[in-house]
Structure formats: structure tokens, C-alpha cells
Amino acid sequence: MIKVSGLSKDYGRRPVVDHLDFTAPSGRITGFLGANGAGKSTTLHMIVGLIRPSSGTAHIDGMAYHELLVPPRAVGVLLDQPSVHPRMTAGQHLNVLAVRSGVPRHRVREVLETVGLADAGNKPVSRFSFGMHRRLGLACALLGDPGTLILDEPANGLDPQGIVWLRDLLAKLAEQGRTVLLSSHLLGEVQALAHRVVVLDRGRLVAEDDVPALLDRASARRPVRVASPAIQDLAGELRRLGATVAVTDGRHAVVNGLTAAQIGDAAAVAGIAVHELYAERPDLEAVFMTLTEGAEAPAGRTPPSSVGSL
Ligand SMILES: Nc1ncnc2c1ncn2[C@@H]1O[C@H](COP(=O)(O)OP(=O)(O)OP(=O)(O)O)[C@@H](O)[C@H]1O
To answer: Which residue range or ranges hold the ABC transporter domain (predicted)?
Structure first.
């Protein structure tokens, strides 16, 4: 498990990460989201001790990164593109890493196979495509068979097949009980892959929740379209329950303030037939846009009214 508490980073007087608290539990994939410049990379670098926080702490399974006995065996990290001598092969590079971090050499072949580079193990890295570099970065992260993975934009540079492969790989790693924390701008992918998300807006936490719960909450606040042969009677019932109802023609209305289930129940209790009931379910991208509205504005920092609200 990763636990971040009160984590902040200031550059000069400018906070780029601002009193951040969140948890990435074991056995789950946590998507770490935010617009460009929101502070994701800075946070991930602080978790693995590459940037010194201005205040606050980050713990991996209860320990700060610098307290870990053999860090590569505890945490696999993919932050920046690994720097590899261009004449080295992926196998040679991984062998050097294995020796340096006390990882058994047989892991090199295993991870090359896991990331689909087994056939390229003898090719100099200078001849690698961007996607192959990304796979090599993942191989480096997986080398120590770590219980935690911290990955900054792991899908970057992967083709569609590569993205599907990565999705399956990360799902398998989480099923094995590992903690996976990953940043990504591919919100469709995150929705398909992540169990939960942590959303940053200009360095501050604006949401931390399981993906289905976040989407359910957002749906509950969306208008619901309803059709009924007795639309005026139904509108009266719904208004009595506190909803705002706009009747659009002789059969249809748009209802705000009640969920589709509440509308269906109210119609059943009143004995009014419902012919259509449609609640638009927002996707993660729509929820993200709402949570980070105005993120492109200059950093005039108004605190979010409440974490996780939409
Ligand atoms: N060394 C530094 N000195 C000053 N400002 C910095 C430094 N490093 C990062 N920043 C600023 O901190 C803010 C957060 O940057 P960070 O790279 O963490 O964002 P990000 O969410 O990872 O963005 P992206 O999605 O574009 O990768 C940005 O405004 C960036 O310009």
C-alpha cells in the first residue's frame, strides 16, 4: 500500500503539490490523474525519494522509500525513459541492473518475456522503437518482482495492441496482490483498467474514489429523461418529491434532482405508466473535466469545496 500524507512541494513560493493525502491500496490499480502541470510527476518522484518534499510524507508498505532495504525488490518504478547505453542490448542492461540491485539473474529472461522483448534481447537499444523503450522501462520496473509499481504514463508510445497487452499485464499484477499506482492522460484506458482514481487539480486533491462510485455519484446529478402517457401527472408527483421537472412535450420531460430509480419508484407508487426512462451515465473523461474545470487558468488557487464532489 502507498500512503501519502500532507505531501507538499514548493518551488520558490509556488506550491506545485499542496498538502496531498491519498492511499493506493494493495491488490488494486489506482489511476493518478490531473491536467498537464497538475503535479503528478512531482508527487511520484517524491514518493520514490527523487524529489525532496517541502513537507509531508509518503510511505510504501509503512516505510519511506529511503528506509526500504532493497528498494527495487519493494518498488518497481517507471518514471522517465530509462537511460541505457545505446550499444547495450536490453538483456545486457537488465543484467547490469540485476547485479547492482541483488536480483537473481534468471529474472532477466523472465521479465524480457513478460514485456514481449524476448526476441529483441540481443538487439542494441539504439535500434529500439519508442514502444520498445517503454517495454524496456517496464522490464526494469518488474525486475525485482516488487510488490508495488509506480508508473508514470506507462502506455506512452505503445500501439493499440501494446495498450491491450499492458492492460492485461497490470490487471494480472494487481490480482496477485500488488499495489499499482499509474498516471495517465488516457482516461478511457484508466476507466477500463483502474479500480480507483486519485484526481489532482493544480497540486490539490479533488477526488479519491473507486471508479464505479465516482461515476455513480456523477450520474445521480445528471438530468433524467422520462416519457409517460400521463406526463403532467408524473411531473406533479416528481415536483412533490422536490425534483425540478421541465415538460418538453405531451409525453416527455427532463427531470433534475432525482435518480432514474427514484423516478421509476415514484411512478410505480402513483400507478403512472412510464414508457422511457433514460439517465445519461457520464464517462471518466466527463467527470474529470468537471472536477478540473478551469485547470488551464493561471494558478489562482481557490480551494476545492469538497473532495470528491462533482
Ligand atoms: N524543478 C522545478 N522548478 C520549478 N517548477 C517546477 C519544477 N519541476 C516541476 N515544476 C512545475 O511544477 C508543476 C507540476 O509539474 P509536474 O511535472 O509534476 O506535472 P504533471 O502533472 O506531471 O504534468 P504532465 O501531465 O504535463 O506530465 C508544473 O507547473 C511544472 O512547471
So the answer is: 2-227
